């Protein structure tokens, strides 16, 4: 797919240190197709190296945030000699890679969800660092209805929700309203319908006002320690904090606090 086509299915708008990415195939319910995953991977890689970007907002055009994988695209590969095994492994690996790119991105990523986010679309929301939902938004991992347990979405869900809430979504496959999703921990806050993007950008602006280096260190440390046992997590966090204390950002921030002035962050 050429660069123009990628740009059309995934829009990018930069303003005031915030990159807003918009899934832009509303007529197809913004599927995480081959093309969409390629566009996401390429765009996230570019943002990771863009020091002018301090936060990312992920939104979608149309009434559906994302319906997940393109099942028509996947089912067509059942005609392959291996019944699609190699293709399924490849596309699921690409999807998992994009989710991990979000976690590894130096900048925090905030999902702005209006409408429905289902299956891998729900996984995408769960993979973001923060999520804002319009009050009409709904979330679902419906694979169990069609004989396809949402195993890869399960990874992101189980790292956001309690075990029983995650299993409830995975086993029942029912739509979860925005307010319930907030209670479960899938989204941070619920706003009036149509205002998710504005609220996500407001949160992004708050983050963008902080030291980019400090936010980068903190995000990386958060995900590292979460995979560790208690002692290892404290040891790792302590080592990170020592290096953070010695960094220019902490020196400036603490100095500004003691001098009762606004800090001046390095870009």
From TrEMBL:
Keyword line: Fatty acid metabolism, Lipid metabolism, Transit peptide
UniProt cross-references to InterPro entries, sorted A to Z: ClpP/crotonase-like_dom_sf, Enoyl-CoA_hydra/iso, Enoyl-CoA_hydra_C, Mitochondrial_ECH-domain
NCBIfam families in the record: PRK08139.1
Family note: Belongs to the enoyl-CoA hydratase/isomerase family.
GO biological process, one term: fatty acid metabolic process
Protein name: Enoyl-CoA hydratase domain-containing protein 3, mitochondrial
Job of this protein: May play a role in fatty acid biosynthesis and insulin sensitivity.
CDD domains: crotonase-like (cd06558)
Top-rank taxon, per record: Bacteria
Gene Ontology molecular-function annotations: hydro-lyase activity
Organism name: Bosea lupini
